[in-house]
Amino acid sequence: MTGFKDLLVVVDISKACATRLDVAAHVASRFGAHLTGLFVKEPPNLPGWAQSEGQAYLRTPSDFVEMQRQAWRGAALASQQLFRARVDVAGITTEWREREGDVAEIASLHARYADMVIVGQVEPELHAAHPARALPERLLLGVGRPILVVPYASPFKTVGERVLIAWNASREATRAANDALPILQQASQVTVLAINPRGGVSGDGDVPGADLALHLSRHGVKAEASWIQADDVEVAAMLLSRASDCQADLIVMGGYGHSRVREIVLGGATRGILQTMTVPTLMSH
Length: 285
Fold this sequence. Notes:
The chain is an alpha/beta fold. α2 links the parallel β2 and β3 (94-100). It has ten helices and ten strands. It folds into two domains: 6-150, 3-Layer(aba) Sandwich (Rossmann fold), CATH 3.40.50; 162-284, 3-Layer(aba) Sandwich (Rossmann fold). The protein is globular and about 70 Å long. α3 (103-111) runs parallel beside α4 and α8 packs across α10 (269-276).
């Protein structure tokens, strides 16, 4: 692992974007990485009533289209200025890109040419139909790169100094731990946490998490293995509680070990963390 050298951060008009850019600049500076800011403008959307001939005297369809384009041009300019203000002080090389279309499709395309993509947690007040609502999930499932999801709630002074790895010996968790190696190698504290571990040959072993801790040690990572049994508590809630206990500033976990449909219907750790996260979380699928 040579570290992250090419990072992508999705920039938008949300209040929490400044915090996301601070995290992106921090990570990029830490690894001497190039940071690309991507802003995606929504295509013009003509309201149904504006297309009615009975409403033609109010405004023509072309007026609405132009108004929306002007609004997005203004938003793009403001976002670019915020990007420059937040990341130029980090002493890293940067790049700004603007595109128009579906934000998840465009971000997925650009993310395939980066080492990691940084996005924001979806804010609860956003309407369910908003294109950005499923962005972390769509990137996680469709990109083939690790995604770093930054909570909207508060700023973060450090990211990756004290890391909590959610370990269940799955393919997705294995991928996440490997993707996070550059961060783990620089961390001062790494905890491997197995929640409700399985026993047996195909499970987590006699000491859950110990095998991963041993593997990480061969990469220069000093990790401590621990496990908890809490069948009556949701995994996401237990993970966040333990993250608070060890003052973790980063969670590393696999995303959607079960099918996404199953997690939507029954709930699951991935959705739980995406909805209630309190620290930045690196996810891989």
